[in-house]
Amino acid sequence: MGTKVLISGAGIAGPALALWLGRYGFEVTVAEAAPRLRGGGQAVDFRGTTHLTVLERMGVLDDLRRIRTGGSPMRFVDESGRTRLHLPTEFAGGDIEVLRGDLVHVLYEHSRPFTDYRFGESVTELRQDADGVHVRFRSGEARTFDLVVGADGLHSNVRRLAHGPEERYVTHLGHYAAGWSLPNYLGIGPGEGSVGLNVPGRLAAVGTSHRDPETAAAFFVFASPALTYDRHDQEQQKAIIAGAFAGTGWEVPRLLASLAEADDLYFDSISRADVPNWSTGRVALVGDAACGATIGGMGTGTGIVAAYVLAGELAAAAGDHTAAFARYEGLLRGYAQGCQKGGDRAGKFLAPGAVGLRLRNWSLNRPRILDWMIEEGRKATHLDLPDYRRFETAPDRISTPGRPLR
Ligand SMILES: Cc1cc2nc3c(=O)[nH]c(=O)nc-3n(C[C@H](O)[C@H](O)[C@H](O)COP(=O)(O)OP(=O)(O)OC[C@H]3O[C@@H](n4cnc5c(N)ncnc54)[C@H](O)[C@@H]3O)c2cc1C
């Protein structure tokens, strides 16, 4: 019998970890709170050889190349509609850009043969001792696993249960971000990317959805101290966004009118997770739960790399999870913190104050500075990757709980 691992969360890091652990012969269960895969989100990107190497070793790179968006250039305008800054595809889209929802589906399909996926399920209690982690689920089921991994995002449930309340680990960085779909009334074409109005402390952008020419995607960012609101109350969130952009010109009134109709609003503080220890006993964290940044912190690439290293170290440690968790954190912490720095700057970059806005537009209108920033972004993602291929189990020996290999 393989080591039994429960992963909480079927976003990006969860299915990536499941894929690797399955290949190494672990018995993997993934509990996802949502009733089905959460396909939401806009474009996410991978940049630099480390990201691409991990995707290639996972066997998903060709799939992602087939569904890549082609990138999302960004144009910033003022209230008269005059272009103040143009950022090319490589700036925001990295080396390969895909829609987050498409990526989630690819990772799910590649991990499904080795994984017992439970949708609409969530951990309500965790208790660990020398025999394992005793888990109670929302459904009432009780099970014991050898290990539990929280891959349940910036607002991680496993982190709360194992380490304590979110306020200890998640820092608000001074801005909020919102995104939703709307009819493509501006007729933005697939390669056009997005156009956004900047006024001090605010960005109101609209761009191609990449999926459907009839649909566009709105993306708003605004400066604000931490707000108190109900994360499940979309009407309340819509009112906050409308209030933050009241009186703003350009296309904003029409974009806000579309917000009232939106049924797929994403709204969150731009914040950063810092957890002093990424594991406690038999419970570890991966992806945004351990080291996330809401936007700009390369959370998707870091999540993929972290899942690769965590699974590889567990395979290499042959049952010594304490050694594996320590090696995983030792290899990844500095790397993840380097990538997170982009997240620290994201709000101030997208929606700067008056002086910051002038400075940003002045500097990034110079090709040399722009190229330097793109290269710095690539460099931040570099990690000397350990090679764990020797631990991969032959396909006919892979444990497939309750499901035949496809
Ligand atoms: C709906 C959505 C849209 C996003 N859109 C963007 C975007 O447009 N651009 C961008 O750069 N990043 C976006 N992100 C964040 C991005 O996916 C992550 O930064 C990154 O990919 C790291 O992934 P992760 O797997 O650690 O976390 P996530 O991708 O956030 O996945 C976490 C998963 O855990 C699940 N979960 C949460 N609580 C529980 C619980 N109690 N029990 C079980 N499961 C739980 C969530 O439903 C989710 O599926 C989005 C995330 C989500 C969930």
Brief description of this entry?
One of its GO terms (molecular function) is monooxygenase activity. Residues 3-319 form the FAD-binding domain. By secondary structure, the protein is of the alpha/beta class.
- Span between termini: 21 Å
The amount of beta strand, in percent, is: 25-35%
Class from helix and strand fractions: alpha/beta
Major sheet description = 7 strands, mixed
Low-confidence stretches: 396-406
Q: Name the overall outline.
A: globular
General description of the model:
With 406 residues, the chain is an alpha/beta fold. It has 13 helices and 18 strands. It has helices spanning 13-23, 48-58, 61-67, 89-93, 100-111, 157-163, 234-244, 252-261, 288-291, 299-316, 321-350, 354-364, 367-380, and strands at residues 4-8, 27-32, 43-46, 74-77, 83-87, 96-99, 115-119, 123-129, 132-137, 142-145, 147-150, 170-183, 194-199, 202-208, 215-223, 266-273, 279-280, 283-285. The chain has a 7-stranded mixed β-sheet with strand order 5-4-13-14-15-12-16, with helices on both faces. A hairpin with a 4-residue loop joins strand 9 and strand 10 (142-145). Helix 10 packs antiparallel against helix 11. The two termini are 21 Å apart. The structure holds flavin-adenine dinucleotide. Flavin-adenine dinucleotide binds next to helix 1, strand 2, helix 9 and helix 10. Keywords: Monooxygenase, Oxidoreductase. It comes from Kitasatospora purpeofusca.
